[in-house]
Amino acid sequence: MTVFAGQGDAQRSMALLWGTPDRPRPARSGPKPGLSVDAIVTAGIAVADAEGMAALSMRAVGERLGRTAMALYTYVPGKGELLDLMHDRVLAELPTAYDLTAGWRPAATAWAEDAFACYLRHPWVLQISQARPVLGPAELGAMETVLRILAGARLAPRQLRGVVAALWQLVRGMARTAAEARAAAAATGTPDEEWWYARSAQLAELAPDFAERFPLLTALESDDTAASEAGHDSGNPLEAQTREAFRTGLAVLLNGVEAAVAR
Q1: 77 vs 70: CA distance, rounded Å
Q2: Low-confidence winner among 97-106, 147-156, 170-179, 221-230 (lowest mean pLDDT)
Q3: Which residues of the chain are in CATH 1.10.357.10 domains?
Q4: At what angle do helices 137-150 and 157-188 cross, to 10 degrees?
Q5: Which fold has domain 10-91?
Q6: Is the pLDDT of residue 21 over 90?
């Protein structure tokens, strides 16, 4: 399920993102309403964190706040605008300053680790396409932070754009795989161990010459098995392997940046 940001009213969305929302209409009678844009966004994130993107609706958010969906529309025009606000709020969790005294590489590594963890806290964000950015202050601030970190590498503008894109996609792609590894058993009703056991048994029967046909893949699998038996994996094996692959891929990517800087 891919969701595109920026589907709500452009003027209202940008005003809400940048802190100049329309004033809510006052209640005609009774006590002052206990709602606010901030409370609605917080509730929206809680719904998406707990139940996923598919469960997000104005009605679900209203129920979490003990209100009707209609009560929310005074503050947030609709789901499209709410999603933009939720996305930007999540990215606001990322630090905006990193220690650069040791150089750009340790800071870039720290940022990637922080972003990876943030996406795993809010995996629904990974379903929001980057084809159309939200253009909120936190999203643009996160980009500014990465550019500030990589400024020390002194890359040409075209190289810099490529490195930023590759770094961000590495983080998002690996975080999405790790999040899916967490969710697979609950979503399918089949535990991971049971799923792999059933298919491994079938593969051994149907392809008895598997090791001869795929020697490199067999060697790689043997290495993963040895690491697991040595206690390197804990919890979900696929998630652990994905985390390791993320850190290895990050190191290789940054090695390439260093090589480009040296040239």
Answers
A1: 10
A2: 221-230
A3: 104-262
A4: 120
A5: Arc Repressor Mutant, subunit A (1.10.10)
A6: no
